[in-house]
Structures are given as C-alpha cells and as structure tokens.
Amino acid sequence: MGRIPQHFIDALLARTDIVELIGTRVPLKKSGREYKACCPFHAEKTPSFWVSPDKQFYHCFGCGKHGTVLGFLMDHDHMAFPEAVEELATRLGLEVPHEGGAERSAARADEPLYELMASVARYYREQLAREPRARDYLAKRGLTAETLERFTIGYAPNSWNELLRRFGAGDGERQLLAAAGLIIERERGSNRESERYYDRFRDRVMFPIRDARGRVIAFGGRIIDAGEPKYLNSPETPLFHKGRELYGLFEARRARRNLERLVVVEGYMDAVSLHQSGIDYAVATLGTATTAEHFRRIFRLVPTVVFAFDGDRAGRAAAWRALQQALPEAREGREIRFLFLPQGHDPDTLIAAEGGAAFEQRFAAAVPLSEYLVRELSEQTELGSADGRARFAEHARPLFARVPEGVYRELLLERLAQVVGLTPARLEALWTGAKPDAPSTSSPPPARRSAAARPARGAGRGTLVRQAIIRLLHYPAIALEVTASERAGLDASEEPGVPLLRELLDDLRAQPAQIAAQVIQRWMGHKEGETLQKLLAREEVITGAAAATEELRAALMKLADQAAGKRLQALEARSRTGSLSPEELNEFQRLIERLSRRDARGG
Ligand SMILES: [Zn+2]
User: Fold this and answer.
1) Ligand 1 geometric centre to CA of 59 (Å)
2) What are 179-198's pLDDT values in tens digits?
C-alpha cells in the first residue's frame, strides 16, 4: 500500500478538532482550558478522562490511555490507521494522497466503474423527464422536484437492452457494465455476443446509492405499478457492499455540518420522504438487517441513533435483530433508541398523515435499548412467578454477555437485576455460577484511585532534558527558535534522555510542526513514542510560546554547561597524570571561557 505522506497527516491533525470529534462519542464537560468525561476505556463514575484542545491530545488518569485524534479512532472505534486517516479526511472533504504503491493503482482500477455509474445515473435522470408514468408515480408519493434533484432520482426505461445498447457497444464496455451489476448474463448463452446480456433494471424508478464522497456506487430500483420484486438493488460489486452502506448518509452529511443523530429506516423511499419533510438526518439500510459495520459507521458520526420500524410482525422481528447487533456497540455516551410506528404505517405514510414535526416528536418517546430489551423479554415470560423471573434471567444472560465492559453494562445489570428482584451482584453470580458473596471477578473494582492519581498542576518539574522535551511537545514550532550553536551544545551531553531530545529537536527543525498531536503522531511506532505521550500527558504550567522558548533555550544552555563542566573535569584529571595535546589544551581553554561566561550569567 502506498504510504500516506507526513504533511497530509499533519494537515489532518491541524484541521480536525479533537474536542468536536471525541465529543460526538463521549459527553465532554468543559473544565478550565480542557474537557473532561468519564473514561470510555474503563469503567468509572468520576471523570478522569481529559481532552486538551491546545495539545489536541486526550489522556485518562485512571487507565493511562492517551493519544491523538487518530489514536482515539483506532482505540475507540477499532479502526486501522489508514481507516482512521480516511475517516478524518472524509470529514474534512479531502482525498487521501498516497505515495505510489498498490492502493493507488487499485483506486485507479475502479475509476472506470465510478465513471460508468455516474454516466448511467445521468442517463436515468434524463429518462425520468421522458416518462410521464414515472413522474406521476413520484408526484403521487409527494416528492417535489427539489427532492428528485437532491437525490438524483431517475428512471430505467422499460426495455431489456436499452442500457446495453447505449453503454455496451464493445466487449470491454459490456464487461464493465456486468462488473457494475447493471446487466445480467443470460443463463442459456446466445451465439451473438450482443444477446448474451440483458438490462438488470427495467421500468423502475431509480435511486442512486452514493458513498461518503458522493460517488454513485449502486442503484436501488422501485417498481412503478404492481410487480415483483417491489424493490431491486444492485448486487455486490467492487464498489458496493450492501452491509456497509447506508442510503442517504451522503445527503444527510451534506445537509448538516454537525450531525447530532441519525434515524435509520428500512426503505429508501422512507428516507427520501423524511429528508423532504425536514428530517434530513434519515438513512436507510439497503435490503439487509442492520449490521455491526452499520453501527460502526453510525457511531463514528453521531452519538445518538433512532431505529424506526413498522409496527407489524416483520418490523418487530427486524427490530429484535437490530437490538442484537446493537448490544456490542452499547456504551456510555451512546444512545440507541427504537421507535415502533403504529400498525399499518411506515414512515412514508405516517409523515404524509401527520407531517414531519409530529413525526420528529415521536423520537423523544422512542424506547431506549435497555428498556426495549426488558420489554421484549418480559413479554416472553411471566414475571409474577419465581419460575418466570428465572427464565427471564436465563434469556437475558446471552444478550447481556454481548455488552462490553463499562458503565453502560453496569447500569444494564442493575436494571435487569431490578426486574428479577435480585441485587446486581447476585444476578451476576447466578449467571457465572459463582457464590453470591464471593468477590466478583468479572467486574473490575471501581476506579477510585483516578481522582487521587491525578497529579497537581505544576508538579513534576523534572530534569532539564524532560523540561526541554515537554516544552517542545507543547510548542513544537519553538524548535526553530533554537540557534545552531545552542543545538550543537547538546552534542557533548551524555545526560539520560539527551539522544531523544536531540532527535526530537532535529526532526522539528527539519520538519516543523505546529501542534503537539502532530509530533505524537509522527513518533507513533518509534521506541520513544510512548515516552513522549507520557510526557505530554503530564500537567505542566507553561505560559505561552514565548516563555516556553526562553525556558527551552535556558535548559539547552544548562545542559551544554553541564557537559562542559564534566569535560573540563576529565581534562583536569588527565593533565595531573600527563600532559595534554595541543588540541586538548585548546579545548581546555575554550571550556574555561565558556564556564566563566556562565558564572558571569549567574547560571
Ligand atoms: Zn480510562
């Protein structure tokens, strides 16, 4: 894979706000210059998780997790590094450049497919203008011209080979159409090449499905009159993986800069109607149940999601499947709710009946995940009897096991225990088969130490080397203020940590950085990367870049003086046992001068 250039990663870190990004996943409270929250990585009840807008860095004093916004996406959202970069780039509307490599050629290989999909989408748009039946149908569904435009809705003509004729003149072009899932190969092959295939979408209203960047990657087609299947989607192609995509997500992100929540519906017609009625944060799954991948996509963007399901039996079954997928994603700071529509309604018909505002009010009454879980399980058992409660506990066990460790899990345990009339400890013991009073091994002790472990501000003045490094981390740009002779003074120092300081200083002089996060990111994977993160996480009083520059230069000077002092002592010792060479004598002279200047400075 092609390497992502350093300058691009620097730019992403400089332009992303870590507070905003973490804030969509963890409820942050402002506290002084920083933000705090209960840590998303360990269970705790008093906040020891801090996010610094200045450093663009987070740190937990409880469990010690820390890092940049990229590190957060990797740890919290379980992304791989390139994925995390892609995520930040997408948020900023940037394309990730690669320095040569296979990734680039793979992207280029898909380029003709993207171009074809875009052309076909345009073609379907044109066809809509020519087909009154399709326009009438959409008008009857209440879609305005503006909505048709926003979603680039079109029409696939009623023909077995119109698309094939127009876009599949040559062999290579037909192969491309087939790869894009737009034509289908006949089971009984024809001798004539042009009759080997037929159009997949015929006489349907066409909904282009777009990726996060707005490129058409697939189509959904809705039949106009009666007929089967009512909805037909593109098959899986190199561009389209239906378990990953959410219809309407591109449009939702374009409509609102800061999305706060998403509502997930089952059909693209529903999503489009919701957008038109002002609920422009609606998305639809594409003919699949909600997948784990969907959840990851959703929670990368927003902390709250509402699932709207039809009130019928199929809707309830779909909701229960969604709940099971949702459990591993449930945690503090995230809200997952379920909305059941009245019998006989889907979002489209309900909006038509009561309007967008009334529909939106239903979100407030939507059932939280934990309550939905309790409600469904209660309906299956008789909670009035001890037997029934035991069955409830038995049914709840595998579901509870899917919830990750954390505050949310503890609260859910409390709620379930309340239903069956046990203490949380007894319920957990029942599940694990342990004695109820034996200390539970499955939940960690409450993190009381967190508040106490937080060092006081200004603590840890540390050694000169440490002071210098910390200042460089907070204000990386001051590396350029250091003079060449100040830098050279470090070469003679043998203090512990000086090699790291030298390397850091040289790197920042060769490749200047503006914020701490950029430095941390560059040193990820380096053997000293973790040391730098720990130093950055320390609380320090540093009053601005100007003061930091002075303190850095003073520390460098002192280190050089120390080295000079040591060297002088060594030369003195040598001169007592023998004579010094002319070069050594010269050096001796310079060292004495240097140190007397220091004494004159009062250092
Ligand atoms: Zn923590």
Assistant:
1) 8
2) 999 999 887 766 666 678 99
